[in-house]
Amino acid sequence: MKKSLIVSLVVLGVLILDQVLKIWVKTHMFYGETFGILGLNWAQIHFVENEGAAFGLKYGGSTGKLVLSVFRIFMVAFLIYMIRKMIKSKEPVGFLIFFALIIAGAIGNIIDSLFYGVIFSESSPHTVATLFPEGGGYANVFYGKVVDMLYFPLFEFRMPQNFPLWGGQVVKFFRFVFNIADSAITVGVIGILLFYRKYFTKSTKQEVVAIAPTTARSEEE
Q1: What is the mean pLDDT of each run of 10 residues along the chain (221 residues)?
Q2: What is the pTM of this model?
Q3: What are the helix and strand counts (H, E) for the chain?
Q4: Which of these is catalytic: 14, 108, 148, 177?
Q5: Residue 157 to residue 99: CA distance in whole angstroms
Q6: Peptide bond into 174 cis (omega under 30)
Q7: Active-site residue flag, 18
Q8: Which partner from 52, 62, 76, 196 sits 20 to 30 angstroms from 213, CA to CA?
Q9: Catalytic residue among 18, 51, 112, 182, which?
Q10: Among this protein's residues, is 182 annotated catalytic?
């Protein structure tokens, strides 16, 4: 199978899973609603939305959100350019798959920011959103909210009373709510760092070797 086809299938597969789950959650759940996956307490679907970065983090209000969305679009364009070069230069399939996961995750969250405000009505604790509402969506292009739903509070504990700043507070792990797109980006980055870190070392060495002869010639002159 061609590497370009493998990359395309990875990106398409992640996008389909990500968007299908987000649309289902948006059109079937109230904001803040939660249920356990297979009845488990530590693995839940918990519907929230965020206006900023991954894992529910915020980023500078509406202006920051616009900047982040535009930055993501340019970054995805750059990553697509890079992966096309990598395919032509015959990089390992595993490396391309991890890179494709990062691209797919970024595109998945861009879709939310660009279009969800236009095609959905507002979600609330008492109202399930409607797809393509008659009165229009809840926001303009670029200002849609990213849908998050995966929540894994594996365990919680209370900090000792004498612990600085957080003494006596209950700490949950893992407290972030995220989505499939966030997961794809995380897996892609971790996979590259664990298994293909030498790729970047190799690139650096090649640059040094390429620069060295030029430097030597300059010194001789």
Answers
A1: 95 98 98 95 95 56 77 93 93 96 96 96 96 94 94 87 80 89 97 86 53 49 49
A2: 0.83
A3: 6, 6
A4: 148
A5: 36
A6: yes
A7: no
A8: 196
A9: 182
A10: yes
